[in-house]
Amino acid sequence: MRTLLLGFGALCTAALLPLGSAHAQGTRLLRHPAISRDAIAFEYGGDLWSVSRAGGSARRLTSNPDMDTDPVYSPDGSLIAFTHMAGAGGGGDVYVMPAAGGDAKRLTFYPGINRVRGWTPDGKRIVFATDRVSVPQASYLRLFTVSKDGGAEEALPMPRAFSGTFSPDGRRVAYEEISTVFVPGWYEASGWRHYHGGRTHPISIMNLADHSVEKLPWKNSNDSDPVWVGNTVYFLSDRSFTTNVFSYHLDTKELKQLTNHDDFDVTNLSATDDGVVYEQGGWLHLIDPRTGTARTLTIDVAGDFAWARPQFKKVAPMIREAALSPTGARAVFEARGDIFTVPSEKGDWRNLTRSSGAHDHSPAWSPDGSHVAWLSDQSGEFQLMIGDQLGAAKPRAIALPSTAFFSQLAWSPDGKRV
């Protein structure tokens, strides 16, 4: 761990460009995109939305207090299969609904992990990943299918598969055997950035006629999210350090890197025969398979978000950091992203930050107890803040030397450095 000393001699702040200034404007944090011939579905705020492939104003498809995610269009674009997670920590179940919106039908009832992955090419069955065959330890997932009308689930022949999609002719399945996440089934296939341990693996392709398996070219990288466009498999890989989109043509054996992002990893890939959509940095991007070029979509999401309304919250259950003042008369706490001081016996509590929507953390008392230092991302990037412990004056902001994550503040004994 690297320790950085910051002096208070030059209290200058750096001008920060708005996040995403080089990208299209619009709503950010759009996740788990799916593509059809004329539309894109995605998750935002725990609900499903759809928008034209050209971007624009999105239309809400679901609205409930639980979480809906993993949308996938049926081959004809008339239906959307998705994962509905009921309650905190729910493993999810498979649902299907009209692509234009309407009532959703529940298809699985197993009380564990059931995550939608795709459709069979004939549009009759939905592919999903489940841990039902690996209980009680739930150490791996396997792909099953279920009819869009409901009924018994059927296992695909791969012994283990975290994700997978059928080839257009239905004869092969490209799949990711296990996840590099250490809790299977929950998040994306990349849990630790640049992880190169024993869980890395190549994309596999199984021939369903004889169960023979072909491995795609691999460099001990994190490869995930295989999808098909004709006889080409598109997938995500961090073999060039940042996760980007790659393609592998099964006839010519040609491997190409199609995107060149060098900041945020690409996640959540989806494809149809004339388009590939992916998530990166909170935006959605569309690749034209004919040219290999990608463009960022401008998508606007507007709705009634109850979770975004101002509200009172108890902070005691979410205290994460605490420190006593030098005299022991007060203690400082970080709770729900704000910095509070509380008297040990008499007096009132004080909120030193009052910064809803920002992450303030790592509070530390100065040696004389007159000031508190903490870290805040209210400006868009983390800065060092120095505030009066009374909360009467506006805190000073000190620019940090990089956009890395900083933590564990500690003052020098003379109070001149942190």
Task: Give an account of the 3D structure.
With 418 residues, the chain is mainly beta. Helices cover 0% and strands 40% of the residues. It has no helices and 34 strands. It has strands spanning 31-35, 39-44, 47-52, 56-57, 59-60, 67-73, 79-85, 93-98, 105-106, 114-119, 125-130, 142-147, 154-155, 163-166, 172-176, 204-207, 213-215, 223-229, 232-237, 244-249, 255-257, 266-272, 275-280, 283-288, 293-296, 299-300, 319-324, 330-335, 338-343, 350-351, 360-365, 371-376, 383-388, 396-399. The strands form 9 sheets. A 4-stranded antiparallel sheet has the order 1-2-3-5, with no helix packed on it. The protein has a 4-stranded antiparallel sheet with strand order 6-7-8-9, with no helix packed on it. The protein is elongated. The two termini are 16 Å apart. The model is unreliable at 7-23 and 184-190 (pLDDT under 50).
Q: Using only CA atoms, what is the Rg?
A: 25 Å
Class derived from helix and strand content:
mainly beta
Enumerate the strands of the largest sheet in spatial order, edge to edge or round the barrel: 1-2-3-5
Give the fraction of residues assigned to helices. Answer: under 10%
Largest beta sheet, briefly?
Answer: 4 strands, antiparallel
Query: What is the count of DSSP helices, taking H or I runs of 4+ residues?
Result: 0
Mean pLDDT across residues: 89
- State the low-pLDDT regions, or none: 7-23, 184-190
- Distance from first to last alpha carbon: 16 Å
Bin the strand percentage: 35-45%
Give the overall shape, derived from the CA principal axes: elongated
Total E-strand runs: 34
